[in-house]
Amino acid sequence: MARGTAAGPRAVLAYLIRRLFAAAVMLVVIILVVFCIFFLVPKWAGVDPAAAFVGKQADPAAIEAVRQKLGLADPIFVQVWEFFKGIFAGRTYAAGGDVTQCAAPCFGYSFRSEQAIWPVLTDRFPVTLALALGAAVLWLIVGVGAGVLSALKRGSLWDRGAMIVALSGVSLPIYFTAMLSLSAFVYGLKWMDGQYVPLADSFTGWLGGMILPWVTLAFLYAAMYARITRATMLEVLGEDYIRTARAKGLTEPVVIGKHAMRSTMTPILTMFGMDFGALIGGAILTETAFSLPGLGQAVLSAIRNQDLPVILGVTLITSLAVIVANLLVDLLYAVIDPRVRLS
């Protein structure tokens, strides 16, 4: 990104190609790092990766079978190649006469549940995506709106009250606000039943089961976004070009909406790319509190059962989501801020 004159279609396309290439390289690096963490580092620590994949109660025969199936006895570069190839072309796990097929994209195979990881991820991903999208809409509207109003009414009763609420939102653990909302609206007032209903079964039931998780998750992020929006807006309002716009006789809504907000949105977009991408990996505490069958619940269950392939798969999906989110944020910079151009 650079500041200067507007870029033409060729510059935009060239920038997009460079960013896609950089994202692909970053994803490869992440896969290598994650692979080393799960397969190479345990060897350095004196832990047998095959035993870790099977579990503590496995007998030596089962451990040896998994070692043969995963190819853990092969050189490390062979293991890395097989892992990469499995993502794009599928993989065959074979040990003697025992053959297991893992169709592409193969992010691993759980010998605990006897199933490939990719179907588990795709089955739970829509729940996590719905949770992240709904909460993101709420925290952007409420958080950014509250921050802008607080900056415009600096020192007022609204400003003090909004920042107190924001400080509470940042300080309170999310599992506390989740339990509090369940206690108040489900068990106390009985406005909701607190049960998750699949969207395919009932839209109204699904919506009713998602409202509290959305609000609970958005409360934490809205508080952070309100604080950063207020601080950024106050800084922007002190810039020379804002005073110049007012001196030219532009109305306050035009000054705030067309000029100040564009500069204010740049750090907010940066935060949003990281926060939303990370949530795609699963909001573990929120999903656990409200019993949502998303990726966060899958990770928590995998940790309890020491099902490493599931943890590995979710880690890769989260990394990919963060990379894609930040790529989109980079492209949106030029749309939000007219001073930023692609080069």
TrEMBL record:
Do you know which Pfam families this protein is assigned to?
A: BPD_transp_1, BPD_transp_1_N
Domain (ABC transmembrane type-1) ranges: 125-333
- Chief subcellular location: membrane
Q: Does the record's keyword annotation contain Signal?
A: no
The alphabetized UniProt keywords are: Cell membrane, Membrane, Transmembrane, Transmembrane helix, Transport
Organism superkingdom? Bacteria
Q: Where are the transmembrane segments?
A: 20-41, 129-152, 164-186, 206-226, 268-290, 310-336
Coiled-coil regions, chain positions:
none
Q: Name one GO biological process term.
A: transmembrane transport
Q: Where in the cell is it found?
A: Cell membrane
A cellular component term, taken from the record's GO annotations: plasma membrane
Question: What topology in the membrane does the UniProt record assign?
Answer: Multi-pass membrane protein
Q: Which PANTHER family match?
A: INNER MEMBRANE ABC TRANSPORTER, OLIGOPEPTIDE TRANSPORT SYSTEM PERMEASE PROTEIN APPB
Q: Which protein family is named in the record?
A: Belongs to the binding-protein-dependent transport system permease family.
> What name has this protein been given in UniProt?
ABC transporter permease
User: In which organism is this protein found?
Assistant: Streptomyces aurantiacus
